[in-house]
Write a structure and sequence with these properties.
Length: about 270
Amino acid sequence: MLSLRELQTSFFHSIASVPGGGSGNFAPKLVQVVEGRGQLGPEERINIYAQMYCARLVEVLREDFPRVAAVLGCERFERVVRTYLARHPSTHPSLRYLGRHFAAFLETWSEVVSLPFLSDLARLEWAREEVFDALDAESLRIEHLHAFSPDEWPGLRFQLIPAFQLLQSEWPVPEIWAAAAEETPTERGWERREKTAVRIWREGFAVYHSRMDATEQAALAAVRAGEPFAGICAALESLVPTEEAAPVMGSLLLRWLEDGILSADKT
Protein backbone atom coordinates (compact mmCIF):
# COMPACT_ATOMS: atom_id res chain seq x y z
CA MET A 1 0.00 0.00 0.00
CA LEU A 2 1.39 3.40 -1.00
CA SER A 3 1.77 6.04 1.67
CA LEU A 4 0.12 9.41 1.02
CA ARG A 5 3.47 10.97 0.08
CA GLU A 6 4.30 8.08 -2.25
CA LEU A 7 0.86 8.34 -3.82
CA GLN A 8 1.22 12.09 -4.39
CA THR A 9 4.73 11.72 -5.84
CA SER A 10 3.69 8.87 -8.11
CA PHE A 11 0.62 10.77 -9.30
CA PHE A 12 2.58 13.95 -10.05
CA HIS A 13 5.34 12.16 -11.95
CA SER A 14 2.78 10.18 -13.92
CA ILE A 15 0.92 13.24 -15.19
CA ALA A 16 4.00 15.47 -15.59
CA SER A 17 6.63 13.19 -17.16
CA VAL A 18 4.74 12.66 -20.43
CA PRO A 19 2.88 15.83 -21.58
CA GLY A 20 -0.74 14.93 -22.21
CA GLY A 21 -0.43 11.48 -20.67
CA GLY A 22 -1.54 8.45 -22.62
CA SER A 23 -2.18 4.81 -21.88
CA GLY A 24 0.88 2.96 -20.63
CA ASN A 25 2.68 6.06 -19.37
CA PHE A 26 1.56 5.87 -15.76
CA ALA A 27 3.32 4.27 -12.81
CA PRO A 28 2.03 0.69 -12.38
CA LYS A 29 1.74 1.13 -8.59
CA LEU A 30 -0.47 4.15 -9.12
CA VAL A 31 -2.69 2.35 -11.62
CA GLN A 32 -3.15 -0.48 -9.11
CA VAL A 33 -4.61 1.80 -6.40
CA VAL A 34 -6.94 3.80 -8.67
CA GLU A 35 -10.42 2.38 -9.05
CA GLY A 36 -12.23 2.22 -12.33
CA ARG A 37 -15.58 3.98 -12.61
CA GLY A 38 -18.23 3.12 -15.15
CA GLN A 39 -16.67 2.75 -18.59
CA LEU A 40 -13.41 4.37 -17.45
CA GLY A 41 -10.58 2.20 -16.21
CA PRO A 42 -7.81 3.41 -13.87
CA GLU A 43 -5.53 4.61 -16.69
CA GLU A 44 -8.36 6.46 -18.43
CA ARG A 45 -9.25 8.25 -15.20
CA ILE A 46 -5.63 9.24 -14.54
CA ASN A 47 -5.34 10.35 -18.14
CA ILE A 48 -8.11 12.92 -17.63
CA TYR A 49 -5.93 14.66 -15.05
CA ALA A 50 -2.85 14.32 -17.27
CA GLN A 51 -4.66 16.03 -20.16
CA MET A 52 -5.98 18.80 -17.90
CA TYR A 53 -2.55 19.34 -16.35
CA CYS A 54 -0.86 19.56 -19.74
CA ALA A 55 -3.49 22.02 -20.97
CA ARG A 56 -2.83 24.20 -17.94
CA LEU A 57 0.93 24.17 -18.58
CA VAL A 58 0.37 25.16 -22.20
CA GLU A 59 -1.74 28.12 -21.05
CA VAL A 60 0.90 29.15 -18.49
CA LEU A 61 3.55 29.30 -21.20
CA ARG A 62 1.16 31.07 -23.55
CA GLU A 63 0.72 33.75 -20.86
CA ASP A 64 4.49 34.00 -20.32
CA PHE A 65 5.35 34.09 -24.05
CA PRO A 66 2.34 35.71 -25.75
CA ARG A 67 4.31 37.17 -28.69
CA VAL A 68 6.09 33.87 -29.38
CA ALA A 69 2.67 32.22 -29.32
CA ALA A 70 1.33 34.85 -31.74
CA VAL A 71 4.18 34.25 -34.19
CA LEU A 72 3.78 30.46 -34.08
CA GLY A 73 0.00 30.31 -34.07
CA CYS A 74 -2.16 28.24 -31.74
CA GLU A 75 -1.56 24.73 -33.02
CA ARG A 76 2.17 25.04 -33.66
CA PHE A 77 2.74 26.73 -30.29
CA GLU A 78 1.00 23.89 -28.47
CA ARG A 79 3.05 21.34 -30.39
CA VAL A 80 6.27 23.18 -29.49
CA VAL A 81 5.26 23.44 -25.84
CA ARG A 82 4.46 19.74 -25.58
CA THR A 83 7.92 18.94 -26.97
CA TYR A 84 9.47 21.43 -24.54
CA LEU A 85 7.61 19.91 -21.58
CA ALA A 86 8.78 16.44 -22.55
CA ARG A 87 12.38 17.67 -22.30
CA HIS A 88 11.86 20.04 -19.38
CA PRO A 89 8.95 18.73 -17.28
CA SER A 90 7.62 20.87 -14.47
CA THR A 91 9.56 20.11 -11.28
CA HIS A 92 9.20 23.29 -9.22
CA PRO A 93 6.24 23.77 -6.87
CA SER A 94 5.57 27.10 -8.61
CA LEU A 95 4.72 27.30 -12.33
CA ARG A 96 6.44 30.69 -12.34
CA TYR A 97 9.67 28.94 -13.36
CA LEU A 98 8.20 26.67 -16.02
CA GLY A 99 9.51 28.71 -18.94
CA ARG A 100 13.06 29.32 -17.72
CA HIS A 101 14.57 26.97 -20.36
CA PHE A 102 12.16 27.86 -23.17
CA ALA A 103 14.38 30.35 -25.04
CA ALA A 104 17.34 27.96 -25.02
CA PHE A 105 15.04 25.14 -26.15
CA LEU A 106 13.89 27.19 -29.14
CA GLU A 107 17.49 27.49 -30.30
CA THR A 108 17.64 23.72 -30.75
CA TRP A 109 14.10 23.11 -31.99
CA SER A 110 14.26 21.78 -35.56
CA GLU A 111 11.17 23.64 -36.77
CA VAL A 112 12.63 27.03 -35.81
CA VAL A 113 14.98 27.18 -38.82
CA SER A 114 12.61 29.57 -40.61
CA LEU A 115 12.21 31.67 -37.45
CA PRO A 116 15.79 32.18 -36.21
CA PHE A 117 14.82 35.25 -34.18
CA LEU A 118 12.31 33.31 -32.08
CA SER A 119 14.65 32.38 -29.23
CA ASP A 120 15.67 36.01 -28.75
CA LEU A 121 12.03 37.07 -28.77
CA ALA A 122 11.45 34.48 -26.04
CA ARG A 123 14.41 35.88 -24.08
CA LEU A 124 12.87 39.34 -24.20
CA GLU A 125 9.52 38.00 -22.97
CA TRP A 126 11.18 36.00 -20.18
CA ALA A 127 13.23 39.04 -19.12
CA ARG A 128 9.99 41.01 -18.90
CA GLU A 129 8.56 38.28 -16.65
CA GLU A 130 11.61 38.34 -14.39
CA VAL A 131 11.60 42.12 -14.20
CA PHE A 132 7.92 42.09 -13.24
CA ASP A 133 8.69 39.75 -10.32
CA ALA A 134 11.87 41.54 -9.18
CA LEU A 135 12.14 43.29 -5.84
CA ASP A 136 10.77 46.80 -5.41
CA ALA A 137 13.07 49.75 -4.83
CA GLU A 138 12.60 53.47 -4.50
CA SER A 139 13.68 55.16 -7.71
CA LEU A 140 16.14 58.01 -7.70
CA ARG A 141 14.47 61.31 -8.58
CA ILE A 142 15.92 64.58 -9.73
CA GLU A 143 15.09 66.20 -6.39
CA HIS A 144 17.43 63.70 -4.71
CA LEU A 145 20.29 65.05 -6.82
CA HIS A 146 19.60 68.64 -5.80
CA ALA A 147 21.17 67.80 -2.44
CA PHE A 148 24.64 67.43 -4.01
CA SER A 149 26.98 70.35 -4.63
CA PRO A 150 28.82 70.74 -7.97
CA ASP A 151 32.03 69.60 -6.29
CA GLU A 152 30.39 66.29 -5.29
CA TRP A 153 29.12 65.38 -8.76
CA PRO A 154 32.32 63.85 -10.17
CA GLY A 155 32.30 61.27 -7.38
CA LEU A 156 28.61 60.38 -7.51
CA ARG A 157 27.89 56.70 -8.10
CA PHE A 158 24.57 55.31 -9.27
CA GLN A 159 22.84 51.98 -8.75
CA LEU A 160 20.26 50.32 -10.98
CA ILE A 161 16.95 49.16 -9.53
CA PRO A 162 16.53 45.37 -9.06
CA ALA A 163 13.72 45.36 -11.65
CA PHE A 164 16.13 46.01 -14.50
CA GLN A 165 17.78 43.80 -17.13
CA LEU A 166 19.86 44.17 -20.28
CA LEU A 167 19.44 42.00 -23.37
CA GLN A 168 21.79 41.63 -26.34
CA SER A 169 20.26 40.25 -29.53
CA GLU A 170 21.21 39.54 -33.13
CA TRP A 171 17.74 40.69 -34.14
CA PRO A 172 15.62 43.85 -33.82
CA VAL A 173 13.56 42.22 -31.07
CA PRO A 174 11.70 45.36 -29.93
CA GLU A 175 10.25 45.75 -33.44
CA ILE A 176 9.50 42.03 -33.70
CA TRP A 177 7.81 42.12 -30.28
CA ALA A 178 5.64 45.05 -31.38
CA ALA A 179 4.75 43.48 -34.72
CA ALA A 180 3.78 40.21 -33.05
CA ALA A 181 1.07 42.07 -31.13
CA GLU A 182 -0.81 42.79 -34.36
CA GLU A 183 -3.97 40.81 -35.00
CA THR A 184 -2.27 39.26 -38.05
CA PRO A 185 1.47 39.39 -37.36
CA THR A 186 3.52 40.48 -40.34
CA GLU A 187 7.01 39.12 -40.92
CA ARG A 188 8.21 42.29 -42.65
CA GLY A 189 11.81 42.86 -41.62
CA TRP A 190 11.88 39.85 -39.31
CA GLU A 191 14.56 38.09 -41.33
CA ARG A 192 16.89 41.09 -41.21
CA ARG A 193 19.66 40.54 -38.69
CA GLU A 194 20.53 43.60 -36.68
CA LYS A 195 22.55 43.64 -33.48
CA THR A 196 20.28 45.21 -30.88
CA ALA A 197 20.74 46.09 -27.22
CA VAL A 198 17.62 46.42 -25.09
CA ARG A 199 17.03 47.53 -21.54
CA ILE A 200 14.02 46.17 -19.69
CA TRP A 201 12.64 47.69 -16.51
CA ARG A 202 9.54 47.97 -14.34
CA GLU A 203 7.92 51.12 -13.03
CA GLY A 204 5.08 50.42 -10.64
CA PHE A 205 3.22 47.46 -12.11
CA ALA A 206 4.13 48.24 -15.73
CA VAL A 207 7.07 46.67 -17.56
CA TYR A 208 8.82 48.55 -20.35
CA HIS A 209 11.69 47.93 -22.73
CA SER A 210 13.68 50.23 -24.95
CA ARG A 211 16.37 49.89 -27.59
CA MET A 212 19.74 51.41 -26.64
CA ASP A 213 22.40 53.04 -28.79
CA ALA A 214 26.13 52.51 -28.27
CA THR A 215 26.43 55.57 -26.04
CA GLU A 216 23.76 54.42 -23.61
CA GLN A 217 25.22 50.91 -23.57
CA ALA A 218 28.64 52.26 -22.62
CA ALA A 219 27.18 54.50 -19.93
CA LEU A 220 25.12 51.71 -18.36
CA ALA A 221 28.12 49.37 -18.47
CA ALA A 222 30.07 51.97 -16.48
CA VAL A 223 27.20 52.34 -14.02
CA ARG A 224 27.09 48.57 -13.48
CA ALA A 225 30.86 48.56 -13.00
CA GLY A 226 30.47 51.06 -10.17
CA GLU A 227 32.15 53.97 -11.95
CA PRO A 228 31.45 57.47 -10.57
CA PHE A 229 29.92 60.20 -12.72
CA ALA A 230 33.36 61.36 -13.88
CA GLY A 231 34.32 57.79 -14.81
CA ILE A 232 31.11 57.32 -16.78
CA CYS A 233 31.82 60.51 -18.72
CA ALA A 234 35.36 59.26 -19.41
CA ALA A 235 33.92 56.00 -20.76
CA LEU A 236 31.88 57.99 -23.28
CA GLU A 237 34.87 59.89 -24.66
CA SER A 238 35.61 57.10 -27.13
CA LEU A 239 32.14 57.62 -28.62
CA VAL A 240 31.61 61.38 -28.42
CA PRO A 241 33.94 64.40 -28.38
CA THR A 242 35.47 64.97 -24.94
CA GLU A 243 33.69 68.28 -24.45
CA GLU A 244 30.33 66.62 -25.17
CA ALA A 245 30.74 63.67 -22.79
CA ALA A 246 29.35 65.42 -19.70
CA PRO A 247 26.32 66.96 -21.50
CA VAL A 248 25.54 63.62 -23.17
CA MET A 249 25.77 61.87 -19.82
CA GLY A 250 23.53 64.53 -18.32
CA SER A 251 20.91 63.84 -21.00
CA LEU A 252 21.12 60.11 -20.36
CA LEU A 253 20.80 60.68 -16.64
CA LEU A 254 17.64 62.73 -17.13
CA ARG A 255 16.19 59.94 -19.30
CA TRP A 256 17.02 57.32 -16.68
CA LEU A 257 15.50 59.44 -13.92
CA GLU A 258 12.32 59.84 -15.95
CA ASP A 259 12.15 56.07 -16.53
CA GLY A 260 12.94 55.34 -12.88
CA ILE A 261 15.72 52.84 -13.54
CA LEU A 262 18.15 54.25 -10.95
CA SER A 263 17.79 53.28 -7.30
CA ALA A 264 17.68 55.84 -4.52
CA ASP A 265 19.23 53.33 -2.11
CA LYS A 266 22.80 54.26 -2.94
CA THR A 267 24.13 57.37 -4.69
